[in-house]
Backbone:
């Protein structure tokens, strides 16, 4: 009964937490693709935001899957969604890193913000493990290790994927310009 | 009663990897000077690497590297405990029952990750000639955000929003004051 109350308590505000986390990952994407010579370029902003959202969604999915697989007993005891809720609670700790990354990009003019993503993802992994630990009598180190390994994989993914993905906005912009010039030629 | 004193090395690694349990068990048993030593060394190495990076690009001389290391040590002994005091005062209004000593100790120890990153960065800087202040130094400072969130949560009985807000303030203060130093 106590545990049911605990889970209900943890569930409160989950929707808003998901929104905040999504926005933060979107912000990471913006800082990764921003062109400081033209910081409000809509193609870079939109593409960056979407890339960040996609990365964040993947990261959360994997974190939930890995921690869910390692906590079968907990899911039986507290219900299927218990691990997912705990991960959502842990993920909200991405906020300080996203705010600092935005400030670093737009106020300080820093171009490399991968460190913010890496540290942020590692921290949210650790905090997710802490949140799962709250539902257990003996939290142990297993969840911390599982979450840290998953988070490390995703921080590496960010470092390796961004240089490739960074080329897409310019190709996209070039493609759109080409389409418009073709349209103009056809109309003429 | 458990009279065993917490191991200092284990506390440093514990604060980096799993700050929540370390704060609960080890912080109150450690002397204040050890916590101050951790933050002083962490920022000494971080600022020294900034100086070394500027030395390698020919923008500054060797004297600046030594001055940076000294400034870092002073920063670690003064600014970080001061941040701890400011946040402790704010949290006093939120009815935190933790003492000032605990707050300063946990804030300074929060930079254990910065110290470990600083040591590794310094090895890469001196042995391989890499420029490490951003890759290792900034990453180390960002790593401290997690332990600081954990410390604030410990002081507020798990209040998430306040923890996030104050950790953002602390992280941004350290990072941007370093950036100003780098541009001097």
Residues:
């Amino acid at each position: 009964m106590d545990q049911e109350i605990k889970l209900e308590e943890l569930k409160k505000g989950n929707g808003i937490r998901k929104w905040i986390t999504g926005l933060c990952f979107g912000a990471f994407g913006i800082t990764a693709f921003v062109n400081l010579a033209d910081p409000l370029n809509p193609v870079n902003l939109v593409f960056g935001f979407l890339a960040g959202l996609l990365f964040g969604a993947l990261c959360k999915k994997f974190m939930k899957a890995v921690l869910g697989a390692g906590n079968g007993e907990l899911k039986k005891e507290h219900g299927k969604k218990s691990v997912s809720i705990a991960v959502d609670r842990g993920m909200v700790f991405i906020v300080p890193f996203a705010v600092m990354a935005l400030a670093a990009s737009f106020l300080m003019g820093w171009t490399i913000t991968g460190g913010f993503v890496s540290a942020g993802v590692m921290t949210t992994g650790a905090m997710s493990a802490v949140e799962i630990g709250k539902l257990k009598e003996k939290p142990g180190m297993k969840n911390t290790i599982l979450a840290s390994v998953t988070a490390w994989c995703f921080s590496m993914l960010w470092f390796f994927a961004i240089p490739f993905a960074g080329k897409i906005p310019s190709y996209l912009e070039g493609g759109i310009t080409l389409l418009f010039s073709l349209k103009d030629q056809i109309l003429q | 009663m458990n009279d065993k004193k917490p191991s200092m090395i284990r506390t440093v690694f514990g604060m980096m990897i799993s700050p929540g349990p370390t704060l609960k068990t080890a912080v109150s048993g450690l002397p204040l000077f050890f916590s101050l030593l951790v933050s002083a060394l962490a920022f000494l190495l971080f600022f020294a690497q900034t100086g070394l990076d500027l030395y390698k690009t020919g923008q500054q001389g060797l004297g600046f590297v030594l001055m940076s290391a000294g400034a870092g040590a002073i920063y670690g002994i003064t600014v970080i405990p001061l941040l701890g005091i400011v946040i402790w005062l704010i949290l006093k209004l939120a009815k935190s029952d933790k003492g000032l000593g605990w707050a300063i100790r946990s804030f300074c120890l929060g930079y254990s990750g910065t110290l470990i990153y600083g040591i590794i960065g310094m090895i890469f800087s001196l042995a391989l000639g890499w420029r490490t202040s951003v890759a290792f130094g900034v990453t180390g400072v960002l790593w401290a955000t997690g332990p600081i969130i954990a410390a604030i949560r410990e002081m507020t009985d798990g209040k998430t929003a306040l923890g996030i807000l104050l950790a953002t303030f602390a992280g941004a203060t350290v990072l941007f004051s370093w950036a100003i130093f780098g541009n001097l």
